[in-house]
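Let us practice reading a record.
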Amino acid sequence: MSNKDFDKLIGKYAILLSVFYVGNIVLPTFGLLNGFLLLAYFFLTNMVIAVIVNYDMKKENIKRPIIIWSCIFFSILGVVFFLLEIIRREKKVNA
């Protein structure tokens, strides 16, 4: 993966996580979601991120189920694991 592709990947996940994070802050503040609906919204956003990470993992031929599980429960952690795995693979190839 070239630096340009890696920069695009970081940009994609930065925008994605930022949009969902703003939604997680704004919706409860204005009372649009509360209780069970808020929990369902958090789970749905984590699932969307997990599906996108899974798609990118298949493109990069990465088989680490812990990345997907961490995305489901805490999306930021899963994205960080995914990007760290890409960096690890690049260092191994270039070593």
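A brief commentary: The mean pLDDT is 88.
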